[in-house]
Amino acid sequence: MMLDTLGPTGPDAPGPALRSGPLRGSAAASILAGACRPEPGPVVRIADDPGAVAAYHRLRHEEFVLRQGLFSGSDLDDVDADPRTVVLVSVAPDGTVLGGVRIAPCTEPDLGWWAGSRLVVAQSAHAGGIGPALVRSACAHVEARGVLRFDAVVQDRYTRMFSALGWTDAGDGPVVAGRPHRRMRWPVDRIQRLADSTKSVLARVLSPFADQPGGLAAGGFRGDDGAPVPGTDLIAACDAILPSMVDRDPEWAGWCSVLVNIGDLSAMGADPVGLLDAVGAPTSSHVERIVRGIAAASAAWRTPVLGGHTQVGVPSALSVTALGRTTRPVPAGGGRAGHFLSLTADLGGSWRPGYHERQWDSSSSRTSDELRLLAGHVARLAPCAAKDVSMAGIVGTAGMLAEASGTGAELDVAAIPRPRDADVGAWLTCFPGYAMLTADHAPAPTPAGPATSAGCGRLTHEPGVRLRWPDGEVTVAVGGTVTGLGRA
Fold first, then answer.
1. Of the candidates 88, 189, 167, which has an alpha carbon nearest to the alpha carbon of residue 133?
2. Which of 22, 380, 422, 479 holds its CA 20 to 30 A away from the CA of 108?
3. 149-155 and 179-186 beta bridge pairing
4. 223 with 332: CB under 8 angstroms?
5. In the predicted model, what is the mean pLDDT of the chain?
């Protein structure tokens, strides 16, 4: 990011001179009428018209070509020609462009790695804070788009400003026309926030169970999606659905209550044999809608509802317990440093209406044969470790598998299978329908059924989850453990 701010732009910028003496006429009247409304100042917006973009290009030419001599003839490049590039401009109340910056993806296809560049402020624009305002707006814009890595290359003399805005120093940059530059990175914490909000409380709130003999599936299965029933070949799993979903989308809530439980059994290599449901709703018609969703899903997976509990006249609530069988349960904590991480996912379908970029729906369009093939993937593969991708997303779930295995994880962003219509940031943090992470001595082979498998990372000695990018850079997605439950 080639940067120059021309004129004072901070709290020390000069303001209007203070007048002394009595106030007369309109000035006195304005005080009697109340505080004066401040004059509107510059705003930052997307340059969605050719005139604003041309004005931004003129500012860049004046600054980087004519004044600084960083470029010969023109500073325009391939980024300007990329239709994905977004230009943000600071505009005065009269429409004058006072400064601008461009932001754009760094790869094709877009992997959620963007960079900002050509930040410029007009020489005549002495209003304080235009440069920092453009930088803050660029950060907000890329985060709103789900970007997971945001970089800039800035002249050394401006690293202090970027550091004050929260950017981190990523090392030496190029020397351009004798001017040294630094590589800076905006710390995107979307994945860390998701892990913290969904899983970080588990160790504390579940501690009374952990203190019991055999509590929380001790003996190598702590942190698993299901729990082996002692003395049997049964695996039990239980999931509750958010009451807000049960309220607004009861049939889908019923479907999901089966989907997530079958996924939990599948992750342990168990063959599902039956379900128990606990349903509550304000009215009988609402209960009927929930039950219709459960029944449709149980028929689709050929797993009957054996019984349960139903109550009318209460706030909406739904939980389902699933039972399955296996003599060789696959633990989440069976991975070791050096093992390959693979993702097996059904990339068919689309975002669920009403849950865009939060829930991917592939299951509702699949046949029973396809769903049962997917459910048997881990049992057929028999990997060292497996975990069903939960609401913590692909990265958060990788962190939980690694935590249970006593390792960390590193994921190769470009190698992670994803649907064509899903941005990387959304795909790595959503509930993806059917997606299974496995750890083994070799990458997972192509599975039976409609899913796709790819080796996309490794378990490591260093705790947490890191993302490896096409340029070889590694960024931290989750700084430490996810649940705090520790090694299985």
1. 88
2. 479
3. antiparallel
4. yes
5. 91
Please tell me the chain's helix, strand, coil percentages from 3-state DSSP, rounded to the nearest 5: 30, 30, 40
Using a 10 angstrom Cβ sphere, with 0-12 exposed, 13-18 middle and 19 or more buried, the burial of residue 273 is middle
Q: What is the pLDDT of residue 126?
A: 56
Q: How far is CA 105 from CA 3, 149, 151, in A?
A: 19, 10, 10
CA distance 81 to 84: 9
- For residue 457, give the H/E element and its range: strand 452-460
Q: pLDDT tens-digit profile of 258-281?
A: 999 999 999 999 999 999 999 999
Helix (H) / strand (E) element for 337: namely none
CA distances from 326 to 217, 378, 379 (A): 16, 11, 8
Q: Where are the alpha helices (DSSP H) in 145-239?
A: 159-164, 190-199, 202-205, 207-210
Distance separating alpha carbons of residues 444 and 39, to the nearest angstrom: 63
Query: Distance between CA 144 and CA 100 in Å, rounded?
Result: 19
Decide: helix, strand or coil at residue 281: strand
pLDDT at 166 over 60: yes
DSSP string, 363-406: GGGS-HHHHHHHHTHHHHH--SEEEE--TTHHHHHHHHHHHHHT
When mean pLDDT is compared across 100-109, 119-128, 324-333, 384-393, the lowest value belongs to 119-128
Helix count and strand count (H, E) for the chain: 15, 22
Per the CB < 8 A criterion, the answer to whether 281 and 249 are in contact is no
Length of the chain: 488
Which pLDDT score is estimated for 470?
Answer: 97
Question: Does the pLDDT value for residue 178 go beyond 70?
Answer: yes
The letter for the amino acid at 479 is G
Q: At what angle are helices 284-300 and 250-267 packed, to 10 degrees? A: 40
